[in-house]
Amino acid sequence: MDYFNYRSEHLYAEDVNINDIATRYGTPCYIYSRATFERHYNAFVDAAKAHKNLVCYAVKANSNIAVLNILAKLGSGFDIVSQGELSRVVAAGGDVNKVVFSGVAKTKQEITYALELGIKCFNVESIAELHRISEIAAELELIAPISIRVNPDIDAKTHPYISTGLKENKFGIDINQAIEVYKTASKLPGLSIQGIDFHIGSQLTEVTPFLAALDKILLLIEELNQLGIKITHLDVGGGLGVPYQEEEPPHPSLYVDKINDKLAHLPNLELIFEPGRAIAANAGILVTKIEYLKQNQDKHFAIVDAGMNDLLRPSLYQAWQNIIPVTLKAENTAKSYNYDIVGPVCETGDFLGKDRDLALSQNELLAVRSAGAYGFTMSSNYNSRPRICEIMVDGNQVHEIRQRETIEQLYQGECLLPC
Ligand SMILES: Cc1ncc(COP(=O)(O)O)c(C=O)c1O
Ligand SMILES: N[C@@H](CCCC[NH3+])C(=O)O
């Protein structure tokens, strides 16, 4: 089921014509579907019912507080990686008791903030971090709930930049050191061992790497048990992929089922999922206008008003995202060419898509699909371009959930030298 559909020749988000949104709010803009966020979140929760579970949405995928609020209302927990993300969860009315804190570089300030708020768990990524958390907790006379993020050295078979579970990646603690680290944790003041976690990468299109990692982690849990170190939750991270092009990732229910199958002998272990992309990617599109069409030799360019600063994935990972017209043309009204869809930024790598066979005209609108995750959150002001607005469609209602930045906001906080 898709909440972005054509009705006659016009693309709609739920019950709203995309052209109407673009006319009212301008382009480029991100447009999200509330029903899609809810459906994707519920797919995880419904599937996970067989086991005690908590879905902690990965805030980095799409951190708009309206998105977080929609998920919080459904009971979601959150996976965060910074004080900024945690503040967003609080601003969105999220439950801090359902927050897990990942990330390799947690600062003293961030740890203190999270500890005082009373988050569910720190996912610890190094021995040095473990000591830092212990010292801060002891000083504040608080107990920090912790989990060790284990790096299981498993190939996630995804893009190298978004693979996180190999021993050469900076994430987590080497699986061979994990037992020693748990032993240390059990002796340090201010810590309460709660769980074990792993996250092997993003945009995984098969379950096999997850299950291979899980096998290694289950052996570790057994070893911990024998040492008398009890854990109450297992956090399997995020990483489930989505279909951008021809990928066929498993449906969340299949993925969750396969994980549940492996945990049948551990009914009291709470299972935590940290999906980001699988919830947010296909809940959003990026709408952009063609400013100019241009032909150099045999090359056709459609130069659009959105660039790599608005959607970085194609430039950074050579990621393919579908690009479709917002209004379908009657056949034979425009000639189709092989286009590179490029942005306004002064970089050769500034493109949204390459080699797309499309019949295009100046000023028409295009929609880049699957842009709800790692779209706005990775955007920047490069080339002094204001960040664009975000719109949430809810049935036939349209809400501007983030205003387009103004030109003045670009240099807010900057100042001239006194002379
Ligand atoms: C620790 C952690 N959890 C969850 C996620 C979310 O991943 P995804 O969006 O692929 O589900 C990430 C990002 O890769 C992550 O680093
Ligand atoms: N930003 C990446 C995913 C990285 C996930 C964070 N560990 C993407 O757009 O695919």
UniProtKB/TrEMBL annotation:
InterPro entries assigned to the protein according to its UniProt record, in alphabetical order: Ala_racemase/Decarboxylase_C (IPR009006), DAP_deCOOHase_LysA (IPR002986), De-COase2_C (IPR022643), De-COase2_CS (IPR022657), De-COase2_N (IPR022644), De-COase2_pyr-phos_BS (IPR022653), Orn/DAP/Arg_de-COase (IPR000183), PLP-binding_barrel (IPR029066)
Residue numbers annotated as active site: C346
SUPFAM superfamilies found in the cross-reference section: Alanine racemase C-terminal domain-like (SSF50621), PLP-binding barrel (SSF51419)
Organism domain of life: Bacteria
Organism: Pseudoalteromonas denitrificans DSM 6059
Chain residues that bind pyridoxal 5'-phosphate: G239, E274, P275, G276, R277, Y374
Residue positions binding substrate: R277, R313, Y317, E347, Y374
Keyword rRNA-binding: no
Lineage: Bacteria, Pseudomonadati, Pseudomonadota, Gammaproteobacteria, Alteromonadales
Protein role: Specifically catalyzes the decarboxylation of meso-diaminopimelate (meso-DAP) to L-lysine.
Protein name per UniProt: Diaminopimelate decarboxylase
Domain Orn/DAP/Arg decarboxylase 2 C-terminal span(s) in chain numbering: 30-372
Gene: lysA
